[in-house]
């Protein structure tokens, strides 16, 4: 069996001899002696187990096996250079992947601005997103399924670091035919008898439940209808006057619907504080760049 523990310098000498068709010319191009080049090529031939060159007074010509070896070796050497370059770029955060957890819309708002700026400045880093509730996001961060997550009302999660980014106001989504559609702004007293539609489970459901708890503090519990749909179909149900729904101001700003009206809420001092969270053990260079951009855009 041939010895495959090759020295890549020896491979380079083979490529040079093949290029110049001469051991002497190859040696001169490297400012080395011909005997040194010849000896190292011979060592490589012994390791590979085949003769790569036919040697004569007129120079050196590749054997059939040598031609095959050089073709494959040249490609492999180039691929190795590419891999080394990619690894170095990954360490610098110039290429790679960034996996982000979120539980609200990307339509508009500071979160969308952070993601947009990051992609503009780092177009070669692939962004992947996962809609998730807070518990799922923290697990994802700690097991390195996620690199960062945008989460509301962040507490001190063990093993994680966070950066408070911005606050969001609440809006109420109602059908354009609703009695309050033209009000522009409403108080809890105006909507306490309404039926609130919530998506079941998932990220949006957790956020809506939190919002409703804040709105109903010290008041009678609101009527709730759980629907197994996403945010888009939730608003479709609102448009059909099946109920009303709470949304963030940035979500409302990113919507252009004639069949749904978005109303501001007053008398609700509590805002939603969003933070960027990441694992304290994260070593992804892309994540570090993402946090730096978030710091600049925070507040």
TrEMBL record:
InterPro entries, per the entry: LysR_HTH_N (IPR000847), LysR_subst-bd (IPR005119), WH-like_DNA-bd_sf (IPR036388), WH_DNA-bd_sf (IPR036390)
Keyword list, A-Z: DNA-binding, Transcription, Transcription regulation
Chain ranges of the HTH lysR-type domain: 6-63
Gene Ontology CC terms: protein-DNA complex
PROSITE patterns per record: HTH_LYSR
Keyword Transcription regulation: yes
This protein's record includes keyword Endoplasmic reticulum: no
GO molecular function annotations of the record: DNA binding; DNA-binding transcription factor activity
UniProt family annotation: Belongs to the LysR transcriptional regulatory family.
Protein's name in the database: LysR family transcriptional regulator
Lineage of source species: Bacteria, Pseudomonadati, Pseudomonadota, Alphaproteobacteria, Rhodobacterales
């Amino acid at each position: 069996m041939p010895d495959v523990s090759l020295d890549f310098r020896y491979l380079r000498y083979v490529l040079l001899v093949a290029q110049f068709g001469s051991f002497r010319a190859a040696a001169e191009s490297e400012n080395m002696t011909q005997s040194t080049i010849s000896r190292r090529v011979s060592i490589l031939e012994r390791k590979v187990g085949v003769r790569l060159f036919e040697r004569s007074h007129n120079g050196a010509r590749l054997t059939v096996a040598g031609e095959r070896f050089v073709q494959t070796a040249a490609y492999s050497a180039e691929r190795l250079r590419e891999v080394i370059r990619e690894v170095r770029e990954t360490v610098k955060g110039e290429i790679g992947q960034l996996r982000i957890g979120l539980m609200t819309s990307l339509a508009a708002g500071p979160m969308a601005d952070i993601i947009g700026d990051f992609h503009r400045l780092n177009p070669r880093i692939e962004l992947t997103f996962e809609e998730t509730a807070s518990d799922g996001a923290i697990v994802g961060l700690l097991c390195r399924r996620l690199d960062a997550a945008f989460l509301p009302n962040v507490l001190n999660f063990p093993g994680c670091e966070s950066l408070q980014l911005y606050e969001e106001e609440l809006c109420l989504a109602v059908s354009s035919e609703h009695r309050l559609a033209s009000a522009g702004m409403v108080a809890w007293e105006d909507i306490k008898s309404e039926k609130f539609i919530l998506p079941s489970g998932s990220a949006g459901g957790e956020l809506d439940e939190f919002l409703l708890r804040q709105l109903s503090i010290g008041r009678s519990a609101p009527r709730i209808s759980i629907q197994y749909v996403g945010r888009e179909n939730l608003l479709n149900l609102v448009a059909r006057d099946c109920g009303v729904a709470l949304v963030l101001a940035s979500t409302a700003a990113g919507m252009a619907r004639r069949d749904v009206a978005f109303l501001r809420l007053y008398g609700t001092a509590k805002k939603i504080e969003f933070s960027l969270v990441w694992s304290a053990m994260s070593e992804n260079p892309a994540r570090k760049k993402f946090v730096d951009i978030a710091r600049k855009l925070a507040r």
